[in-house]
Amino acid sequence: MDVKLVTGLSVQGLNTHSVKQQPVNFTLPQEHNSSDSPLDWYGLTESSRHVLNAIIVITSRQQLLEEAKENPDLQKIAHFENQYEEAYDLLNDSENFKSLKRMREILDTCTSVLQALRQLA
User: From residue 17, how far is each of 7, 12, 22, 23, 45 by CA, in Å?
Assistant: First the structure.
């Protein structure tokens, strides 16, 4: 079977018979209300992760810039390290992404932190 891709490229010899389809067992966490759309979960998860990743990137860059100065401000470096660690810990705790309420709290708190960091950059 040949598959034509949008860009005009093709994949030849794709064996679709060897691919076993398995059912997806997707369940929303217990907090789920019938009014909550799966897109709400997706949007909040991606938004929360984006904000946390942005904080990690900016604090890392600001820390490196401060360390490169002739007389670095150690308090600023410690502050950036703390913000980095907090964002990193939030990002790597899967429990934070099982609750719409928790993801909204992360966005409410971390969006203002991100805006302040972007003004520094």
Answer: 25, 14, 13, 17, 35
